[in-house]
């Protein structure tokens, strides 16, 4: 199995922009394939904390999938192994918000 990519994409209300793919389980190869449809020099951003946009930060970590079963929207379903109390994880590329 290839490394997974954890990322959240959001659609925009601006109809002039291309539709954006919703959340999905994605591998590095699938992300590369999706990005190959855009110019190589196009800038990559992510949503800011409350508004606006930030540059991205790439990192890797061991992740336990579907760990969080909380009903609150702001908890993601996956967790770092360090917070999962002994569960084994899978190495993933994390696409995060840069500073």
Short description:
The chain has about 100 residues and is mainly beta. About 10% of the residues lie in helices and about 30% in strands.
Descriptive account of the structure:
Helix content is 8%, strand content 30%. It starts with a strand and ends with a strand. It has one domain. Strand 3 and strand 4 form a beta hairpin. It has 99 residues and is mainly beta. Strands 1, 2, 3, 4, 5 and 6 form a six-stranded mixed β-sheet that branches.
Q: What oligomeric state best describes the polypeptide chains here? A: single chain
Query: How would you spell out the order of helices and strands?
Result: EEHEEEE
Biggest pleated sheet: 6 strands, mixed
Strand content: 25-35%
Distance between the terminal alpha carbons, to the nearest Å? Answer: 31 Å
Q: Assign the structural class, choosing from mainly alpha, mainly beta, alpha/beta, alpha+beta, or little secondary structure.
A: mainly beta
**Low-pLDDT regions:** 8-16
Nearest-integer average pLDDT: 78
Treating each run of at least 4 consecutive H or I residues as one helix, how many helices? 1
**Number of structurally distinct domains:** 1
What key attributes describe this structure?
single chain, 99 residues, mainly beta, 1 helix, 30% strand
């Amino acid at each position: 199995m290839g490394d997974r990519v954890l990322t959240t994409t959001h659609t925009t209300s601006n109809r002039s922009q291309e539709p954006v793919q919703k959340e999905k389980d994605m591998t590095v190869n699938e992300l590369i394939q999706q990005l190959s449809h855009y110019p190589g020099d196009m800038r990559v951003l992510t949503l800011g904390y409350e508004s606006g946009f930030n540059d991205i930060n790439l990192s890797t970590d061991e992740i336990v999938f579907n760990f969080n079963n909380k009903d609150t929207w702001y908890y993601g379903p996956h967790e770092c192994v360090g917070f999962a109390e002994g569960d084994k994880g899978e190495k993933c590329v994390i696409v995060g918000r840069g500073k």
